[in-house]
From TrEMBL:
This is HAD hydrolase, family IB. The keyword Transport does not apply. It holds the Pfam family HAD. InterPro entries: HAD-like_SerB (IPR050582), HAD-like_sf (IPR036412), HAD_hydro_SerB1 (IPR006385), HAD_sf (IPR023214). The keyword Hydrolase applies. It comes from the Bacteria. SUPFAM superfamilies: HAD-like. Keywords: Hydrolase, Magnesium, Metal-binding. GO terms for molecular function: hydrolase activity; metal ion binding.
Amino acid sequence: MPNQSTQTKLAIFDLDDTLIRGDSSVLWTQYLWDKKIITDPRFVEADKEMMELYNAGNLDMVTYLKSNLQTLEGIKIELVAEWLEDFVETIILPRVYPTALSTITSYRSQGIPIIVISATVSFIVNKIADRLGADVSMGIDIKRSNGCYTTEVDGIPTFKEGKVKRLTQWISHQPITDAYIYFYTDSANDLPMCYFADETFIINGDPRLLQAANENHWPQYSWSL
């Protein structure tokens, strides 16, 4: 194994309930509901069911997105982008953990790239990650048609082992011969990435993740607003 000092260090962060309090996908649906952009309460209820399945590790992400993304059917991407700007400014930024920001700043001061990888759709993740000063962001990419988002996933979803696949894919296209990875997460859905990383840090971990953290001696932290 090469010495750590010869490796390219990368600081990888999950997004929801790790860098921010709450789930950005659920918050986005609620935002659309509050703004009366969507008027069918079933979409809000479906997000609650999604979170229960997600927390239990039983979510079929592709099926969920096929349903959820109907909320944006026929709406031009440019208009969605305008809503996202307001959403991030008014809903997300007040929910960013101060310790998350200081941790990102600490890595940045060491010249270590910041990467946010989330199981939320990429048009939400990218907007938030950009405001947090991330160098790279990855979410679940959605196919586009006629200037609108579809309900179809494009490529490998950044969910469970998909996060590792997407990260290694990205690394393979960089001038990186060997990466040393710091990883931060709250969710047992990220266990594949936890085991892949060189150092894993648990932030407000869920019960299943805390059990794994205790077994693997991963540091555990509580971040709050």
